[in-house]
Structures are given as structure tokens and as C-alpha cells.
Amino acid sequence: MLATGKAKADDPRLDQLWRCGASECPGYVYDPRQGEWTQDIPANTAFHDLPADFWCPECGAGKIEFFRVGDGVQWRTGLRD
Q: How many CB atoms are located within 10 Å of the residue 43 CB?
């Protein structure tokens, strides 16, 4: 299942950065405005619109290992896709 980049440019979810929190990860950050070319994820794809099988391109961890970064706080996704 491919992401479609369906979020509108003014969608606030596109301003949310998501960091991989796996212990072996060097600190990959998913930026919705950039997408992820290694998995054919187009720009403007919000994190929650990513396919269930999205994985960290740096360490291979799944979506459940990602944290939302913002306001100095990191939020665990809690997603079990």
C-alpha cells in the first residue's frame, strides 16, 4: 500500500516531525513535507497517512518506534499497525 500524499499544504499535521526512537537508530526524523523517497512516500504525507508497513530507512524499525517531536516533548505513536 503506497501513501498518496493526500494532506493539504495547510494541514497542521505536516508540521509534525516524527523521530525514530529505536535504540539502534542514529536518529532518523520523518518530515511529512519531505516524504521518504526510499519507500516512494510523496511529499505532504502526514505520518498517520503512511502505510502500516512503513519502516525507518536508517535502522529498519517499524512505525511503532516513532515519536512525535514538538514543543520540547516526544510522544510515542502507540500505533499497532
A: 15
- Taken as a whole, the chain contains a residue count of 81
Strand partners, 78: none
Most confident among 1-5, 16-20, 23-27, 52-56 (mean pLDDT): 52-56
Half-sphere exposure at residue 18, Cβ-oriented, CA atoms within 13 angstroms = 29
Rounded CA-CA distance 21/1 in Å is 24
pTM over 0.90: no
Determine the residue type at 67. Answer: F
Domains identified in the chain and CATH numbers: 12-76 (2.20.28.10)
